[in-house]
Amino acid sequence: MIAERGIVKRFVLGIALITFLSAATVATAGLLEVGQLAKDIDAGGKVIKLGEEEVTAATAGAPQTILVLGSDRRVADKIAGTRGQSDTILLIRLDPHNQATSIMSIPRDLKVNIPGRGVDRINKAYLHGGPGLTVKTVKELLATTGEPFKINHVINVNFRGFRKAVDYVGCVYGDIDRRYFNPQGGVYATIDIKPGYQRLCGQEALDYVRYRHTDNDIVRAARQQDFLRQAKAQVGVKKLFERRRQLTKLFGRYTESDRGLHSSTGILTLLKLAAFSASKPVREVSFPAIIPEDPKDTFLDYEVGKLHSAVTEFMEGRSRGPVTKATPPAKKPKKRKRRKRVPAGLQDARKLGEDQGIVASQGTPFPVYYPTLAAPGAQYADQARTYNIRDLKGKKYRSYRIVAKSGEIGEYYGVQGMNWTNPPILDDAHDTKVVNGRTFHLYYDGKKLRLVAWRLPGAVYWVTNTLTRTLSNKQMLGLAGSLKRAG
Is the pLDDT confidence value at 303 over 70? Predict the structure, then answer.
C-alpha cells in the first residue's frame, strides 16, 4: 500500500521523541540498566562511520547537539542502488543550564554549498555522501560567526517504528490547525484528519507529520516541530519508564547512529543529560528561510545575519516568552461606554464570525464564542466543526473548532472551545493579561504568542496562531478580545 511504503519516508520525529524522552526516564530509574539498554540499541542498529572532523565526542555534563536525519529512499533509488535524499534534517540541543530544549529544522530545499559538490539543495548532500557529507554541510552552514558548529551525535532514521513509538507512549494530543485531506492516494499517501484538538495515534500521527502536498517546506517543518513540542509536554516520565525496553529496542531496530551511541559510556552520558533536561520546555527555533518570489524557483535562500541570530537562539535555548512566571490576574476594570475600534492589523468580520458561531452552537451544551474580527485577507476555511473528544481516562466531552485561512500558503489560525476544562495543551501558561475585562492565559514561542486561552467555570476557549506564528501578538490578543457569545 502507498501509505505503508510511505512510512520509511518523510519524518524523523518518532526517533527524536525516543532519543531524549525515553532516555530521561532511564537515568531516573537506575543507571544499572544502561548496559542492557545499550545491548538493546546495539542489537538492531547499524553504526554510522564518522570521523572526528564530523562528530565531536561528548564529555560528561556538557551540552550536546544531536543531528537527526530522515532519508527519502524511494523504490527507484533501491533499484539504482543510490541512497536517496535526506527528507528531514532536525537539530536537537540538550543543555540543562538553558531555559529550554531547542529544536530546529533545516528546510530540505535550502540552497547551500555542499563541500566538494558545489551549490545545490541541502538534501542532495545525503544523496552524494550519506550522513557524513550531510554533517559536513550542516556544520559549514551553521558556522555563521567563524566559530565551528559542533555536532555530538548523528541518528539516521528508518521510519517503520514511528507508529509503534507513538502508540507505546500512549498517543499524543495535537492541536490540528486545519483539515488534512487526500482521498486519492497516488504520489502522496491518503489522509483524512479533521481540524481541532484531538488525540492522534500511530498511523494518523504519521499521516499528519509527513503531510506535504498543499503547503511548503517551512510550514511542514513547523508542523513537525509543533508535534514534537506537544509530545514532549504530554508524555510523562512514569509512562516512558514503563515502556523503556520497548522504546530502546525500537530505537535500535529502526535507526543508524554514530559509534558513541553504541557504547554504555556514550549512552549514559546522553541519558544523564536528558534526565536533567526532561523538565525543560521545548523551544522551537524557526530557520530563517526566504521563499522565492518566482514560483518557478524551488530553492529556498536565507540571510546570513538572521541565520546567525537563529543559531544563537538554538544554542542558548532561550525562554519561550518575555515573562516566565504567570502574574496574578488584575481586577476587572469598570465598564465605560465608548465607541469600539478595530485593533490595528485586524478587520471587522462580525457577520462571517456569527455564521460560524451559529453552526458551532448546534449540539454544543456550553456557550459558544466566535471571533468578530479577522486577520486582513483571512477567510473561514469551512463550516465550524463540532465533535466529541475523550480525555486520558476515556471521559467524553464536546468541542468545536473554527478555522480561518490567513492568506499565506499552508497558514491557518483558529478558535477552539470545549467543556473539557483541563486539556494538556493548557498546562503551564507563561503569563496572563486582561483584555476587555477577560483574563487571558498566554503561551509563547520565543517572543511570539502561540496560543491565547480564556476560561469559564464550565468551558475553555483558545485562539491558536498559525504554525509559523505569522500573526502578531497584538493580532492574537485582538482576536481573543473580540470573542462574542453566539445567540
Answer: yes
